[in-house]
Amino acid sequence: MFIDLRESLSGACEFSLFSYEATMKTLYLYKVCISSGLEFDCIGDGNLDLHEGDKVIIRCERYQDFGTLKTDAIGEPRESEADFEKLRASSGKGRHIEGQKIPLILRRANDEDLATDCANQERASGVHVKAMERIRFHNLDMKLIHTHYSFDRKLLLFQFSAEGRIDFRELVRDLSSMFHVRVELRQVGVRDEAAILGGIGSCGRPFCCASFLPSFNSINVKMAKQQGLSLNPQNISGCCGRLKCCLQYEADLYQVNGCLHKPPAGKEKTATVPDDDSPDLEPTPPRAESNRPAGKNRGQFRPPNQDKKPKKIPLQEMQ
Question: How many structural domains comprise the chain?
Answer without folding.
Answer: 3
